[in-house]
Amino acid sequence: MKPQKIIYVFDGVVFDKQGRILIDQRVGDTLESVNGLWEVPGGKLEFGETPEQAIEREILEEIGCKVKAKKLIPYTDIGTLEYPDKLQHTVVFYYICELMDDDFVEVHDHKIGGYRWVKPEELDDYEFMFGNRAAINMALQLKDAKPLEGKSQVWS
């Protein structure tokens, strides 16, 4: 039996001032079925981080732009992926994010084949990783709503 691993991922639906959404294309993954698919940026939660810190760090590291995680989207994506060497149970949470540095983007991650700023009406032109499109659709509905901003608190 393959080793089993659980990971928690926090992704950001990043909007620029024109209302476009930042998406990136996944490449170089050992799981062939996801290569070429589009996704919103983000990544794994590291030890000691809040979800907001994870999103902001991952997007800066991978794509080179500074964002602020603003609102937790009430949508969670859960699935199990079978990699050649492991079974990975992945839990993905999404946040609405604000671009902080005037859409400066420079890809720093070899698993990102490119990026695009897309208008909502252009989303159907892209094939997304599972769950991403549902999260984007919910973010579009909630981005102008005025609920309390999401925050995480660390206790010890």
Note poorly predicted spans.
none
In DSSP terms, counting alpha (H) and pi (I) runs of 4 or more, how many helices? Answer: 2
The N- to C-terminal Cα distance equals 35 Å
Element pattern in H and E: EEEEHEEEH
What's the count of strands? Answer: 7
Question: What is shown here, in short?
Answer:
The chain is built from 2 helices and 7 strands, in the order ββββαβββα. It has helices at 51-63, 132-142; strands at residues 4-15, 21-26, 38-39, 42-44, 67-82, 87-99, 112-118. The strands form 2 sheets. Strands 4-1-6-5 form a 4-stranded mixed sheet, with helices on both faces. Strands 3-2-7 form a 3-stranded antiparallel sheet, covered by helices on one side.
Features:
156 residues, alpha+beta, Nucleoside Triphosphate Pyrophosphohydrolase, 4-stranded mixed beta sheet, 2 helices, 38% strand
Overview of this protein structure:
The chain is α+β, with helices and mostly antiparallel strands and 156 residues long. It has a single domain, classed as Nucleoside Triphosphate Pyrophosphohydrolase, CATH 3.90.79. It is 15% helix and 38% strand. The protein has helices spanning 51-63, 132-142; strands at residues 4-15, 21-26, 38-39, 42-44, 67-82, 87-99, 112-118. The chain has a 4-stranded mixed β-sheet with strand order 4-1-6-5, with helices on both faces. The chain has a 3-stranded antiparallel β-sheet with strand order 3-2-7, covered by helices on one side. β5 and β6 (87-99) form a beta hairpin. The longest helix is centred in the middle third of the chain and has 13 residues, at 51-63. The chain is globular, with a radius of gyration of 15 Å. The N and C termini lie far apart (35 Å). The model has no long low-confidence stretch (mean pLDDT 89).
